[in-house]
Amino acid sequence: MGFVDLNAPPHLAAWKREVGDFLSTCRDLPDLVGFSTSGSSGRPPKMLLFHQEALECSARAAVAHLHAWEGDWCCPLPTYHVGGAMIFQRARIAGVRVHTLEGRWDAARYADLVSRRACAWSSLVPAQVFDIVHDEIPAPSCLRCVIVGGGRLERAAGERARALGWPVVQSYGMTEAASQVATALPESPFENDWLPLLPHWDASIDEQGCLALQGSALFFAQITEGDNGRLVWLPRDPSARWRSSDVVELHDGKLRFLRRRDRLVKILGELIDLDGVEASLAADAPGCAVVALPHPRRGADLVLCGEEKAPLLRALARWNAAKPGPLRLAHCAALPLPRNSMGKLERGLLRREIAQLFSSSNRA
Q1: What's the pLDDT score for residue 362?
Q2: Which residues, other chains included, contact 313 with Cβ-Cβ below 8 Å and sequence gap of 6+?
Q3: What is the rounded CA–CA span in Å between residue 75 and residue 82?
Q4: Residue 242 in 3-state DSSP?
Q5: What is the β-pairing status of strands 73-75 and 121-124?
Q6: Are 320 and 329 in contact (CB under 8 A)?
Q7: Segments in the chain below pLDDT 50
């Protein structure tokens, strides 16, 4: 077996060791780097394995896209996620340094580190940008671009960050693609919708409307649980396009993310887009999430979740007064929304918490 560097968050430490033990039994493996992911659907984790050349391809394409050949990077993200790890890959390609924010995330300390080290480049997740905007922290003048990944940054937050001097740009990516697939540019007005594809991707749309990719930065193989609960090795066919679960549009070299295919549910015979419902409700309940719980008659109940009860109740009342039966919300629940260390909503965990809260014995 070649050298294998596995990366996973602390709560998956035991599973990472299990994957390492599994790989130790495999023969004739090349040198590989692995990143864990469970996507947004909460399924069992996967370990996605990459050739070092794939990571370098992704890093080189991102540096070329942003013209980031000069200036140091600041890393406020955990490096066991691909978003944080790729900061170091990009810096190595460009021959520059990385300055790491140690300890827990703090927006003021982050801005101070960027300023003291004269960093030109960085990456954040939407929750971190929200903290910067909330605290009205002005941007250090040395910054040239801040890549925002791990989810969509709301336009109001993006525009407010730009007004504070932060050159935030929306990106779209995934672990399977070694981070970025499409990324906006800092010299353009803030845009979280149509994003320019990076040059190393050959992108198309499959018959279900989902993004299909071919390119040198794709993962080599994955390890996940089989039907019997044991780990299995699943190589990717290098001659075939890899198909995602993201429904997108492509036009003139740009990508527009619409929704995840697995976020569609049927209620009373109508196909409901949970991401669309969530986005519409965000005006009345910022930061909300919508969970679908199985229902024996209707197919599913929609539950509106958020941190504070009052805006949820207002949003529920206004929504239900204007929408037909299949789109109406059955419940709302105020609770801390579980997020991973990148600030991304853990939908699988939230769904389990809501299912426990609204058990079948308590639902009509």
Answers
A1: 53
A2: 332
A3: 12
A4: strand
A5: parallel
A6: yes
A7: 40-42, 360-361, 363-364
Quote the pLDDT of residue 41.
45
Evaluate whether 333 touches 354 at the Cβ level (below 8 Å): yes
- Joined tokens for residue 152: 């969509």
Report pLDDT digits (tens) over 278-319.
988 988 998 899 999 988 778 889 999 999 999 999 999 999
pLDDT of residue 337: 93
- The pLDDT tens digits of the residues spanning 129-140 come to 989 999 999 999
Tokens 């703090």 -> residue: 106
Tokens standing for residue 47:
């370990």
pLDDT for 2: 67
CA distance 232 to 242: 19
> What is the dihedral sign for C-alpha 169, 174, 176, 182?
negative
Indicate the burial class of 229 (C-beta count within 10 angstroms; 0-12, 13-18, 19 or more): exposed
* Four-point Cα dihedral 228, 231, 232, 233, nearest 10: 170
- Cβ contacts of residue 205 below 8 Å, gap of 6+? 211, 212, 248, 249, 250
Q: Both tokens of residue 234?
A: 């699943």
Question: Comparing C-alpha atoms, which of 96, 98, 23, 86 is closest to residue 59?
Answer: 86
Contacts of 324 (CB under 8 A, 6+ apart): none
- Where b means 16+ CB within 10 Å and e means fewer, 126-140 reads bbbbbbbbeeebebb
Q: What pLDDT is stored for residue 301 in this prediction?
A: 92
Q: What is the DSSP letter of 244?
A: E
Given a contact cutoff of 8 angstroms between Cβ atoms, the answer to whether 212 and 237 are in contact is no
In this prediction, residue 259 carries a pLDDT of: 82
